Amino acid sequence: MTQPIPVTRDTVKRLSVYKQGLHQRPAASDQAALKRIIERIGLLQMDSISVVARSHYLVMLARAGLYDPAALDALLDSGFLFESWAHAMCQLPTADYPWYHAYIRQKRVNESQWQVDRLDIDMGPIIENVLETIRQRGPLSSKDFESERRGDGGWWNWKPTKVALEYLLDYGELMVSHRINFQRYYDLPERVLDFSQFTLDKSIEDFRRWTIERGLRHIGIGTSNHVADYYRQYKREAAAILADMRKAGRALPVEVEGWKDPAYMHRDDLALLEAIQSGEREPQMTLFLSPFDNLFWDRDRDEMLWDFFYRIEVYTPKAKRVYGYYVMPILHGCELIGRIDPKVDRKKKRLIFNNLHLERGVKLNGALNRGLIGAIKEFMAFHGCDSFELTKCNRAPLARRLRKHFA
Question: Most buried among 43, 77, 181, 349, using CB within 10 Å?
């Protein structure tokens, strides 16, 4: 049996950044480039928070540079992307739909209808009415339906028709056809996708093997738990699938310094690993990453690789927040070196950093200063801002430099 390949943590970082397309920008940021980026990283997580641009736009900004968000929106409208529960609610290439069709089919058979059962009302007629209304009228959003809310808050405060829409989406009876101002519009699957382009013969076992192999490709090197997390699969099943892949020679064992658990990489990445180990393909960019960026979905892996403790503080009471509300990590080369808490004042066209915090041990130098200034300028341009305000920074020399530069 193949002996594990010894690698350093720095090598794993570089490979991870490269596999995620965060090492360099494409020659052009057109729609073709956006498609290649999505195919490279596999999926885009959706999130509704809009204190700055919504997460999926930020994920693309980090990889594509300045681009037209309408070009990204059009990929869903045109059918290049579809939406489904994956790592979370995500947009994925439509070419991947056959595997998700197997997953959705399995859910219909095996999973409980907890979404509708907990409302304690007869949802059958509501579900049928919602489905028939869309069948007759075409794509509709939740606001097109009228019904009373129930409950005190949270998702269970949705209107029963909203619950019906989400249930029908979850079980494949509806799909998201497009969005307007982030509002989903639902339609029948056969009117959203051209099913003649698919052969829908995948099994749930095919789906599980596919997600683990794809997850391994997307992260570069990881344990079975890390690989499972990318498409949110069961960890025990991931371990068994990776063991089978190792026997077949598709997954190579890796021994990462400081890691106790066995790790793996895809055999197709061996040449890339060797190039990185020889000093080639050194990431050079400074980027602000969405809280939901694919690079650090697995918080345990973040700490194992970067010693970077990160938790989303949006839902933390203000008095208990450590770094701020919508905290975005800063990637400099292949290191997570700090975080920002940004906000866009859209009326004043001003980008505000409520906090800029560099990690302990990060040294200020010309490359970092230039990188941060460039990243701020790009962030301003993407959000249509013409001024910048820094409220708080834990490094006084950096604060002075940035305030002077953007005065």
Answer: 43
Q: Are 288 and 58 in contact (CB under 8 A)?
A: yes
What confidence tens digit (pLDDT) does each residue in 217-249 have? 999 999 999 999 999 999 999 999 999 999 999
> Vertex 105, ends 188 and 128: CA angle to 5°?
45
DSSP class per residue in 172-204 = TS-EEEEEETTEEEEE-HHHHS-GGG------H
Q: Which amino acid is at 337?
A: I
pTM for the full predicted model:
0.94
Task: Map tokens 């970077």 to a residue.
Answer: 308
Closest C-alpha to 286, from 12, 25, 11: 25
The Cα angle at residue 89 between residues 180 and 376, in degrees rounded to 5? 70
Give tens-digit pLDDT for 82-110. 999 999 999 999 999 999 999 999 987 76
Residue 269 one-letter amino acid:
D
The C-alpha atoms of residue 222 and residue 261 are separated, in whole angstroms, by 9
In degrees to the nearest 10, what's the CA dihedral of 74, 76, 77, 83?
A: -160
CA distances from 83 to 71, 80, 207, 293 (A): 17, 11, 16, 17
